[in-house]
User: Which sequence fits this backbone?
Protein backbone atom coordinates (compact mmCIF):
# COMPACT_ATOMS: atom_id res chain seq x y z
CA UNK A 1 0.00 0.00 0.00
CA UNK A 2 2.61 2.53 1.02
CA UNK A 3 4.08 4.60 -1.76
CA UNK A 4 6.47 7.31 -0.62
CA UNK A 5 7.82 10.39 -2.35
CA UNK A 6 9.88 13.17 -0.78
CA UNK A 7 8.47 16.65 -1.41
CA UNK A 8 8.64 20.02 0.34
CA UNK A 9 5.84 20.92 2.74
CA UNK A 10 4.67 23.81 0.54
CA UNK A 11 4.16 21.43 -2.39
CA UNK A 12 2.27 18.93 -0.20
CA UNK A 13 -0.03 21.64 1.17
CA UNK A 14 -0.79 23.04 -2.28
CA UNK A 15 -1.37 19.69 -4.00
CA UNK A 16 -4.69 17.88 -4.33
CA UNK A 17 -4.48 14.12 -4.15
CA UNK A 18 -7.25 11.87 -5.44
CA UNK A 19 -7.11 10.03 -2.11
CA UNK A 20 -5.48 12.47 0.32
CA UNK A 21 -2.01 11.57 1.54
CA UNK A 22 -0.21 12.22 4.79
CA UNK A 23 3.13 14.05 5.04
CA UNK A 24 5.77 12.75 7.46
CA UNK A 25 9.24 14.32 7.60
CA UNK A 26 9.13 15.32 3.92
CA UNK A 27 7.69 12.02 2.75
CA UNK A 28 4.25 11.84 1.14
CA UNK A 29 2.54 8.68 2.34
CA UNK A 30 -0.48 7.16 0.67
CA UNK A 31 -3.21 5.97 2.98
CA UNK A 32 -5.04 2.68 2.66
CA UNK A 33 -7.94 2.77 0.25
CA UNK A 34 -11.23 2.56 2.13
CA UNK A 35 -13.68 -0.20 1.31
CA UNK A 36 -17.36 -0.80 2.10
CA UNK A 37 -16.63 -1.79 5.73
CA UNK A 38 -14.39 1.19 6.37
CA UNK A 39 -16.81 3.57 4.72
CA UNK A 40 -19.86 2.23 6.61
CA UNK A 41 -18.12 2.64 9.98
CA UNK A 42 -16.88 6.10 9.13
CA UNK A 43 -20.44 7.05 8.17
CA UNK A 44 -21.75 5.58 11.44
CA UNK A 45 -19.35 7.70 13.52
CA UNK A 46 -20.10 10.84 11.52
CA UNK A 47 -23.85 10.40 12.03
CA UNK A 48 -23.50 9.39 15.68
CA UNK A 49 -21.32 12.31 16.68
CA UNK A 50 -23.09 14.69 14.30
CA UNK A 51 -26.29 14.18 16.32
CA UNK A 52 -24.38 14.85 19.57
CA UNK A 53 -22.20 17.76 18.51
CA UNK A 54 -24.17 20.39 20.48
CA UNK A 55 -24.32 18.20 23.59
CA UNK A 56 -20.61 17.33 23.41
CA UNK A 57 -19.54 20.81 22.20
CA UNK A 58 -17.52 19.42 19.31
CA UNK A 59 -17.04 19.82 15.58
CA UNK A 60 -17.09 16.47 13.75
CA UNK A 61 -14.69 16.11 10.83
CA UNK A 62 -13.96 13.24 8.42
CA UNK A 63 -10.48 12.89 6.94
CA UNK A 64 -9.22 16.30 8.01
CA UNK A 65 -5.51 17.04 7.68
CA UNK A 66 -4.13 17.70 11.15
CA UNK A 67 -0.68 19.15 11.84
CA UNK A 68 0.48 16.83 14.63
CA UNK A 69 4.04 18.21 14.65
CA UNK A 70 6.01 20.73 12.59
CA UNK A 71 7.06 18.05 10.07
CA UNK A 72 4.07 15.71 10.36
CA UNK A 73 0.56 15.98 8.92
CA UNK A 74 -1.85 13.14 9.62
CA UNK A 75 -5.43 12.44 8.51
CA UNK A 76 -7.63 10.66 11.04
CA UNK A 77 -10.65 8.84 9.63
CA UNK A 78 -12.82 10.84 12.05
CA UNK A 79 -11.79 13.66 14.37
CA UNK A 80 -13.75 15.51 17.02
CA UNK A 81 -12.49 19.03 17.60
CA UNK A 82 -13.51 21.11 20.58
CA UNK A 83 -16.22 23.56 19.61
CA UNK A 84 -14.12 26.43 20.99
CA UNK A 85 -10.88 25.31 19.30
CA UNK A 86 -9.57 27.76 16.71
CA UNK A 87 -11.07 27.20 13.27
CA UNK A 88 -8.08 26.50 11.03
CA UNK A 89 -7.78 25.05 7.53
CA UNK A 90 -5.30 22.57 8.99
CA UNK A 91 -5.77 22.33 12.75
CA UNK A 92 -2.76 22.15 15.04
CA UNK A 93 -4.84 21.98 18.24
CA UNK A 94 -5.23 18.41 19.52
CA UNK A 95 -8.62 16.92 18.68
CA UNK A 96 -10.75 15.61 21.55
CA UNK A 97 -10.92 12.22 19.79
CA UNK A 98 -9.31 10.62 16.75
CA UNK A 99 -10.78 7.44 15.27
CA UNK A 100 -8.83 5.12 12.97
CA UNK A 101 -10.62 2.35 11.07
CA UNK A 102 -8.59 -0.56 9.68
CA UNK A 103 -8.63 -1.15 5.95
CA UNK A 104 -7.32 -4.35 4.34
CA UNK A 105 -4.02 -2.74 3.26
CA UNK A 106 -3.23 -1.07 6.60
CA UNK A 107 0.05 -2.03 8.21
CA UNK A 108 0.32 -2.28 11.97
CA UNK A 109 3.69 -0.52 12.15
CA UNK A 110 2.41 2.47 10.17
CA UNK A 111 -0.70 2.65 12.36
CA UNK A 112 1.40 2.54 15.54
CA UNK A 113 3.55 5.41 14.26
CA UNK A 114 0.44 7.43 13.44
CA UNK A 115 -1.09 6.76 16.88
CA UNK A 116 2.18 7.81 18.53
CA UNK A 117 2.01 11.08 16.57
CA UNK A 118 -1.50 11.74 17.91
CA UNK A 119 -0.40 10.99 21.48
CA UNK A 120 2.66 13.24 21.16
CA UNK A 121 0.41 16.02 19.87
CA UNK A 122 -1.72 15.69 23.00
CA UNK A 123 -4.79 13.81 21.73
CA UNK A 124 -6.29 12.25 24.87
CA UNK A 125 -8.76 9.87 23.27
CA UNK A 126 -7.82 7.50 20.44
CA UNK A 127 -10.01 4.71 19.12
CA UNK A 128 -9.09 1.98 16.66
CA UNK A 129 -11.68 -0.26 15.00
CA UNK A 130 -11.13 -3.42 12.98
CA UNK A 131 -14.44 -3.92 11.14
CA UNK A 132 -13.62 -7.37 9.77
CA UNK A 133 -12.74 -8.92 13.09
CA UNK A 134 -15.19 -6.67 14.99
CA UNK A 135 -12.51 -5.62 17.46
CA UNK A 136 -12.10 -2.31 19.28
CA UNK A 137 -9.14 -0.68 20.98
CA UNK A 138 -8.43 2.48 22.88
CA UNK A 139 -4.91 3.87 22.80
CA UNK A 140 -2.90 5.75 25.40
CA UNK A 141 0.77 6.14 26.34
CA UNK A 142 0.67 2.56 27.67
CA UNK A 143 -0.30 1.13 24.28
CA UNK A 144 -3.39 -0.31 22.64
CA UNK A 145 -6.03 -1.76 24.95
CA UNK A 146 -8.70 -4.14 23.67
CA UNK A 147 -12.15 -2.97 24.80
CA UNK A 148 -15.67 -4.36 24.50
CA UNK A 149 -17.26 -0.93 23.89
CA UNK A 150 -16.31 2.69 23.48
CA UNK A 151 -16.96 5.28 26.19
CA UNK A 152 -17.68 8.65 24.59
CA UNK A 153 -15.28 11.30 25.98
CA UNK A 154 -16.82 13.78 28.44
CA UNK A 155 -20.12 11.90 28.44
CA UNK A 156 -21.80 8.93 30.08
CA UNK A 157 -22.64 7.50 26.64
CA UNK A 158 -21.37 4.12 25.51
CA UNK A 159 -21.16 2.84 21.93
CA UNK A 160 -21.72 -0.92 21.83
CA UNK A 161 -20.39 -3.06 18.97
CA UNK A 162 -23.92 -4.20 17.99
CA UNK A 163 -24.84 -0.58 17.31
CA UNK A 164 -21.60 0.16 15.50
CA UNK A 165 -21.55 -2.94 13.32
CA UNK A 166 -25.29 -3.28 12.57
CA UNK A 167 -24.98 -2.07 8.99
CA UNK A 168 -21.97 -4.31 8.38
CA UNK A 169 -24.03 -7.39 9.10
CA UNK A 170 -25.67 -6.74 5.71
CA UNK A 171 -22.32 -6.62 3.86
CA UNK A 172 -20.77 -10.05 3.17
CA UNK A 173 -17.04 -10.46 3.70
CA UNK A 174 -15.14 -10.99 0.45
Assistant:
Amino acid sequence: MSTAAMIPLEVYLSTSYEHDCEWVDGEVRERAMPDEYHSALQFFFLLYFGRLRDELHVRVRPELRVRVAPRRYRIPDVALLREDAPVQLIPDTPPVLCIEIFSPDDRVGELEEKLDDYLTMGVRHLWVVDPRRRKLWTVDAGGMHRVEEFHVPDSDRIIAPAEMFAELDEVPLP
Observations:
- Helices lie at 9-13, 36-56, 108-121, 161-165.
